[in-house]
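seq as requested:
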Amino acid sequence: MPAWLQLRFPKPGREAGPSDLAAIWEKGTQLVLSLLIVTILVGLAGGVMKTFIGLRLLWTADLEIGLRHLIVSTLTLLAVVEVLKTTLAYFSEGRVRVTFIVDTVLVVMLTEVISLWFTGGEWEKLALLAGILLTLGLIRVVAVRFSPAQPAQAGQTQPPGLSLP
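struct tokens:
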């Protein structure tokens, strides 16, 4: 059994204290997140295989249909990668940054907009999704601009050409 899964229960006759319950909570959360990470990885691998198999549409159907399928499938897989990134951040840091959540939602929403665009969706839905995307982009900029600086990073400036976290 891995060391991070080993629980230390109180000795018989001694009641469990808050620190014991917190340790049980932390280990349980780590176990559930580990299962979630494995599930996401299996789903990602299955999605890649299904996308690869779907390449046959390039030869059996109209080229536009095959490429549309490839683009939408790839964007969906990238959304899953963002969800995995957010889960891994929570697993390692014990919290999730607002920028990670907004990035994940942005990728998912972009996927929806592009798939709706390719499938000839209604303009009202596209306009609504575009408005949501603009709002999320604004939230992303504000979250980066006004994020609480850590003492070690307070005096550092970012070199030109590098993207913000």
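The helical segments are 18-53, 57-60, 63-93, 98-118, 123-145.
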